[in-house]
Design goal:
The chain is α+β, with helices and mostly antiparallel strands. Helix 6 packs across helix 9. It is flat, with a radius of gyration of 26 Å.
Length: about 425
Amino acid sequence: MANALLSRGAHSGRASRFRRGFGAGLALLSLGVAGSVVAQIDAADRIITPRVDGGSFEVGGIDVDVTAKSATAARYAGWRVAQRKGWQMLARRMGGRVGSLSDSALDGLVSGIVIENEEIGPTRYVARLGVMFDRSRSASILGVAGTITRSPPMLIVPIEWSGGAPVAFEQRSDWLEAWARFRTGNSTIDYVRPAGTGPDALLLNAGQINRPGRGWWRTVLTQYGASDVLIPIVHLYRQWPGGPIIGAFQARYGPDNHLLASFSLRVANGDALPALLDAGARRIDEAYQRALSAGVLRVDPGLLARLPTTEAPTDETDAATLAEDAVDTTSVSPTSSTVTVQVDTPTVAAIGAAESALRGLPGVRSAVTTSLALGGLSVMRVGYEGDVSRLAAALEARGWQVTIGSGAIRIQRARPLLPPPNVQPENATQG
């Protein structure tokens, strides 16, 4: 049975939901070039819209077996049981307070039901379900709101090797669809997933991962509001048409294309290819999460280069050689500039807090939000009397994490330090 997502009483199959969404009513960007290049870059079938689910925790693999007076009553009773079991599983996984909630309280927390498999009889409902819980409300009830941290925003460039040729965003691929389906709500990795529109096919192609130049990478990452890049790769080997498929997966990261983990999976026939790629995406995400907690996955220092500070020109004339009444003693005000500031704004309150923090800094003349993205990255225009490095220092002194990029700065609230990984002492013996 195909997976299905139910939200507020509506549901549909996963495969049909995604296939109908792709290519329907999507506008094309005309690049003004001719011939085969237009057909390659502007192809509508390369656009893949990622699933937006970063605001939910998902708990899967919940088995229910319920009987009732009718099939409909049994089904809804099964969903109720799944909500209760899912809440207990989520509480244990998050390390929060484990306790039962009423069905009405759970209804306010549940944002969707995922049907992994179900069998419906006249009076019986047997299914394997998943439950999606609202992230912010669930975290506050569990008492873990202050401990949920995520990585800096990471641009993901999935690359599929099939038939001896690599494909990233140049055209639509099964690997891109797998990452579009992947639910990021449970992951500690803050994925930036392009949809393949506009210049994505030119900037994020298979050749880009072999360009280690930090200057060009900074330019590309700035376009997507990301701090670093993740490169999940799959090599597909088909034994014969319609037969078994072997997928060799690699989890790579950074502008130097470092290898983090690799593994292989196999399915019996071509119809199971989506399941193969979904499993590979989950395992690669787990590898990235382990590397993040161990301190291995971190932003490349070369991508954090600060903007060069411009020194004020000095007058070569020595004031001491002038007459006393010829020396200009008036003070010169520092040069004013307009700085673009990117800030994470998960809620409306975060926007107001960021604007208030910026306006309270000495030298700031104005702070206006020019691009609002609730749950994402908003952009502010700040008028400042001074250079960017002084503004960054002032923000860091007030507890903000500041990243200076090309033409903009990114600010985040400081996160608690992760505990160091368990390392055996040098004199430890191997057992």
